[in-house]
Write a structure and sequence with these properties.
With 677 residues, this protein is of the alpha/beta class. Helix content is 39%, strand content 19%. The protein is built from 23 helices and 21 strands. The strands form 4 sheets. It has a 7-stranded parallel beta sheet with strand order 11-12-10-13-14-9-15, sandwiched between helices. The longest helix has 30 residues. It is globular, with a radius of gyration of 27 Å. Bound molecules: adenosine-5'-diphosphate and magnesium ion. Adenosine-5'-diphosphate binds next to helix 11.
Length: 677
Amino acid sequence: MINQEPVTSLKGIGEKTAALFRKIGVETVEDLIHDYPRAYDVFEAPVPVGQLTEGSCLAVSGQILKAASVKRFNHMQIIVTTMKDMTGSLQLTWYNLPYLVSTLQPGKIFVFRGRVARKNSRLVMEQPEVYTREAYEKVMNSMQPVYGQTKGLGNKVITRAVAQALAQCQMAREYLPETLRRKYQLAEYNYAIEHIHFPANQQELLFARKRLVFDELFFFILSVRRLKEKHRDAVSPYVMGKSQKVEELLGRLPFQLTGAQKKVLAQVQADLESGLMMNRLIQGDVGSGKTIVAVLALLQTALHGYQGALMVPTEVLARQHWESITELLARYGLTVGVELVTGSMTAKEKRLAYERIASHEVDIIVGTHALIQEKIRYHSLALVITDEQHRFGVGQREALGEKGSGAHVLVMSATPIPRTLAIILYGDLDISVIDEMPANRLPVKNCVVDTSYRDKAYQFIQKEVEAGRQAYVICPMVEASELIEAENVLDYTKLLKNRLLSQISVECLHGRMKPKEKNEIMERFASGEIQVLVSTTVVEVGVNVPNATVMMIENAERFGLAQLHQLRGRVGRGKYQSYCIMVNASGPEAQKRLDILNHSNDGFHIASEDLKLRGPGDFFGLRQSGDMEFKLADIFTDANILKEVAEAVDLILKEDPLLERAENRLLGKRLEEFIIL
Ligand code: ADP
Ligand code: MG
């Protein structure tokens, strides 16, 4: 298949560029055509100079006033000229583009497009693109894709590669039945792929996007339904009644379970002794105390002489759970073996761990998706728990379940999804809700501020650190980007090291670091050695450092509300008063959304308000994350599509449950591929 060929099969992409592509998760031509843009750059009609505002990226059209001058500064050549239209004049500057001097002749008319900045109280445009009026008219109103980038691999190279890939890749056969496409007004598949990259306008983009979102959700829901069929009334050989030791442990914990925790634990225990397979989702807001319920179920399993596994989405989280479970069991003198399995362990470490698992030397196994590695043989796997499950596909959950036939399945999620949506998305699971917070918590104090507040925020962080506490600072990007204006972890860490007292230890954490480095940083943060952690959203999932009391979020306007709520959930986990500082670097529109968070700490309330506020097309740069691993779909923004999908799945399965009819056959095949993934 052409589409499975490496990106080096494209013209102009050698090994070096391919290595950069690998960094953004693209290895084959197929990967490339599914590497959808993060955003789109719209070439709007030129505006009058008099209407320019600082910080915006706009086009102006006008005449060059005088010949461009070249200044030398260090090793740079700076080209400066001025243009004017009927409403005013504007200074333009470029760096190291000497050939422009001959182009920019006085009296000539051009369109300049770029970001407007303020220098010495005057507006200037820096490094603008230069077009003739005719050339600009051609691109005007078109949308250019903006891809996720990495250092050395800019947007132009990616865009060109995608265009080439689309031109030469093999077209896919349409697998959705015609009737379905008509009914839900869905674009043809190949059209959708092409236009999600290169839409001529917003309308085309929405049309293409709807089709791809529909597909993602459609296969997801289909596979959920299939699981439901498979699990309906399935018996389990693992019948595990309540255990005396678990009851004792409950009495000796440093805290009392909340009423909601007790209720959910009782539901889980009833499942475990029912003789039927448990398939249960525990939904509970961040900090509601899901972990202890999971640990008690694992312990009950171990005490019955079986094995239980806990699968989490990141190594950082796996290690943290492993440590806290080991510590808890040791503290109460329980002799239960606990094993950690992660991808970054050495081959030898893995081999030894596998041996202990196979020989039943260990009873509780904690790890990342390394737990479903083919090489692992469990001795008697009776309970499978996935924490923060939204990060796993249904397939992964199923794969772990298959390691132990008849094993009970427990899924834990902190995504506050309204009940109607939860029933669709988790159709194969019974749902338990922990709808109560531990009593000893002080609610997090919130504020939404603009960037001018930063210095005060740093002083505040300093004060908290001096009092022995710790802080997170979240930035949306890992490194600087030419096209996306947002704070990045690498530069921000440098900045904070300078701004905060030198004895304060500031380090960074992001998804591009090696797992081992991430673990090390997270451990040093958990132990209090690092006091301020500058991070991307990798800390969003489940990390528990109760001593941290400040969560400062840069470019808060770039995150979805549910995700911000998850981030905020990293503080307020202990006995200290905690604070969440959301920095809004954009305008009043974002302020409206952020105010919802500012005034509520209740995840379910936030999620439903978020749904109300957003309209179709409101999806740019606002990934809720915290969702399942969908590429495009966002269960909040796309709630309406999700409902259509649920209806479509019902219709199809009612008429053709095994997808055997001619018009559904391709669909059935595609579903098999999806489940394997
Ligand atoms: P989440 O639901 O987000 O996974 P955790 O299970 O990590 O939350 O719990 C958050 C913190 O609350 C942990 O430090 C845990 O020990 C503590 N905790 C859990 N249950 C209770 C309770 N009933 N009373 C007081 N603290 C609790
Ligand atoms: Mg958790």
